[in-house]
Amino acid sequence: MAYYRPPGPPPDPALVRSLTQQQHEMRQRVRHEPLPQEPRLIAGCDSSFPTPDTILSVFVVLKFPSLELVEKVYNYGPVDMPYVPGFLSFREAPNVIHAFAKLQHKPDVIMVDGHGIAHPRRMGIAAHLGVLLDMPTFGVAKQKLTGIFQEPGIARGSITELLDAKSGELIGEVIRSKDKVLPLFVSPGHRCDQATATRLTLACLKGYKLPEPTRLADHWAEEFKKEVR
DNA sequence: GCGACAG
DNA sequence: ATCTTGTCGC
């Protein structure tokens, strides 16, 4: 845990206002609903940074529910936007979109490494990408960004709700994906609902803390990183 | 006023 | 996210 974080360069107030406005507008386009049909292909998405100013985004596509890997692609490019909590998508989405375009097999749903609506303005990167790609998406994050919750039981499969501290609104679910490991934060992005996000996450567990789509995207991000260095 | 703060 | 060794527990 990061108990203390040294102060980084202060984010430009004007930029933050602009990005906040963009999120409010995009939020109006988000829809929550079940998938039209059971997915045949599920994708995993993740990004890494080979150097401080370059980003490498990865997409893996797996058959569902067998979880057999059918494709993996990546895109590598420069990053301009700095990291500001709550505005991660503006820094990563552009490159992620380019990686998605390289896929030969378009998935039925995308599992994103990060939050869906479990975000201050309900626009985490999973929701953001869902709107831009007009694809069903949901987020699986390793750390909480916002909300309150009770610690789920230590047994794999235990689940508790992630609620907005002020309104009490359900913004996600906290899932113990493996015995005794820190829980995951799962929330719908776009064209997906909480029940589906949680169900698919559980269906993609293979004994590791991370579900296969995200775990493999993470793995290949490390492998591809060697190629661009 | 005091914390919290995805990747 | 990224930089990093040894170490604890199943």
Automatic annotation (TrEMBL):
<protein>
    <recommendedName>
        <fullName>Endonuclease V</fullName>
        <ecNumber>3.1.21.7</ecNumber>
    </recommendedName>
</protein>
<dbReference type="Pfam" id="PF04493">
    <property type="entry name" value="Endonuclease_5"/>
</dbReference>
<keyword id="KW-0234">DNA repair</keyword>
<comment type="function">
    <text>DNA repair enzyme involved in the repair of deaminated bases. Selectively cleaves double-stranded DNA at the second phosphodiester bond 3' to a deoxyinosine leaving behind the intact lesion on the nicked DNA.</text>
</comment>
<feature type="binding site">
    <location>
        <position position="113"/>
    </location>
    <ligand>
        <name>Mg(2+)</name>
    </ligand>
</feature>
<feature type="binding site">
    <location>
        <position position="46"/>
    </location>
    <ligand>
        <name>Mg(2+)</name>
    </ligand>
</feature>
<feature type="site" description="Interaction with target DNA">
    <location>
        <position position="83"/>
    </location>
</feature>
<comment type="similarity">
    <text>Belongs to the endonuclease V family.</text>
</comment>
<keyword id="KW-0255">Endonuclease</keyword>
<keyword id="KW-0963">Cytoplasm</keyword>
<keyword id="KW-0460">Magnesium</keyword>
<keyword id="KW-0540">Nuclease</keyword>
<keyword id="KW-0378">Hydrolase</keyword>
<dbReference type="GO" id="GO:0043737">
    <property type="term" value="F:deoxyribonuclease V activity"/>
</dbReference>
<dbReference type="InterPro" id="IPR007581">
    <property type="entry name" value="Endonuclease-V"/>
</dbReference>
<keyword id="KW-0479">Metal-binding</keyword>
<keyword id="KW-0227">DNA damage</keyword>
